[in-house]
Design goal:
Length: 117
Amino acid sequence: MILNIFPYNPGHVMVVPYRHVASYDMLEEEEVLEMGLLVQRTLRVLRKAFSPQGFNVGMNLGRVAGAGCDGHVHMHVVPRWNGDTNFMPVLGDVRVVPQEIEATYKALHEAWNNCEE
């Protein structure tokens, strides 16, 4: 699990396999299972650390689909709250994230270490 350096919301993380492959269908069965289990744990950790009301979980495969790093598959996990979007991305092509990445890391690190498997 890594933090997204350009988060959509505080706590936006990515589950990344160790092996570099461009697409989900190129992963071995064990890698798919490990990613799935890490996504489950990440959801528990984010609930504990940030109390979100929902999540977006998914991946962008290929540059045309929005992949910023299209040579390495990764799963996005984005915590969501009612009303968490605003006019800034629409009008100014700017995102406003109300938490510094260091504070997000600290909260997630503590929750990760105290979360049941």
